[in-house]
Design a protein that fits this description.
Helices cover about 20% and strands about 25% of the residues. The protein has about 250 residues and is an alpha+beta fold. The strands form 6 sheets. The chain has a 5-stranded antiparallel β-sheet with strand order 5-6-14-10-11. A 4-stranded mixed β-sheet has the order 1-2-4-3, with helices on one face. A two-stranded antiparallel sheet has the order 7-15. The protein is globular and about 55 Å long.
Length: about 250
């Protein structure tokens, strides 16, 4: 039986998680591990299964809150090494789950590929964006995904093809422990045109959203036919502050 100590090259015991959190909050992880590739990730998860160590996974940590008391068990951060790679062949794009979504957007726009430019300004990694189908009025991450490589809680790796994937408003059918990488099929377009659309999206977001502050975007999903931000504003909660957390006085759903 393997031991968690066998992974000392990527292991940080009692590691504070605040430094890795988008909101800069969170107590220590009993074991923080940062695997560099899919095989290493698989080995870590299988070790945790054998030793009955609970496992949690995160990437950019821009859509989670980590409690101050810390996290027992193994916390796996998917962000570097092979997980951050992006490759483009024609109109097919392969991205590691730890690649920043912003990097994926900029690389595809630079290559003259249309589809992901509407995701400009969204924080986090490709894995998190796919799991929660991050997006906005002009498109979502999942609509361009053709396959996703995942790892189960038992440490089994397999590929989900397009017919095994479904995406809806801020949700996906991807419910395994971790996403390893994803393949997207985009459309060839004039690079300058795609760049201009991306810039227009960014300007519109900056005009309406508090992007200069540390914000992970909208807090609540929109109820059918309504806007959560408008409801929060009607409740008189714009600008409400508790400690270091504040509802934006510019857009009430941030």
């Amino acid at each position: 039986m393997s031991s968690i100590e066998d992974f000392k090259e990527i292991l940080k015991p009692s590691e504070p998680l605040a430094k890795y959190s988008y909101f800069k909050i969170g107590g220590p992880a009993q074991f923080l591990l940062e695997p560099r590739n899919a095989d290493e990730l698989q080995a870590v998860v299988q070790c945790c299964v054998e030793n009955e160590i609970p496992v949690r996974v995160f990437g950019g940590a821009s859509n989670i809150l980590i409690k101050d008391s810390g996290v027992q068990g193994a916390v796996i951060r998917i962000h570097a090494g092979d997980f951050s790679k992006i490759s483009i062949e024609g109109t097919t794009v392969t991205a590691g789950a730890g690649a920043l979504l912003s990097n994926l957007v900029s690389e595809t726009v630079k290559a003259g590929l249309a589809g992901l430019e509407s995701l400009v300004g969204i924080p986090g990694t490709v894995g998190g964006a796919l799991h929660g189908n991050a997006g906005g009025h002009n498109g979502d991450t999942g609509q361009y995904a053709t396959s996703v490589t995942v790892l189960t809680a038992r440490g089994e790796k397999f590929v989900r093809t397009a017919d095994e994937l479904s995406f809806s408003y801020r949700e996906s059918s991807i419910n395994e422990l971790a996403i390893i990488e994803a393949v997207f099929e985009l459309t060839a377009d004039d690079s300058e045109e795609v760049t201009n659309r991306m810039k227009k999206n960014w300007i519109m977001k900056k005009a309406n959203q508090p992007l200069t502050h540390q914000s992970a975007g909208c807090i609540f999903k929109n109820p059918r036919g309504m806007h959560a931000g408008a409801l929060i504003e009607q409740a008189g909660l714009k600008g409400t502050r508790i400690g270091g957390a504040e509802i934006s006085d510019r857009h009430a759903n941030f």
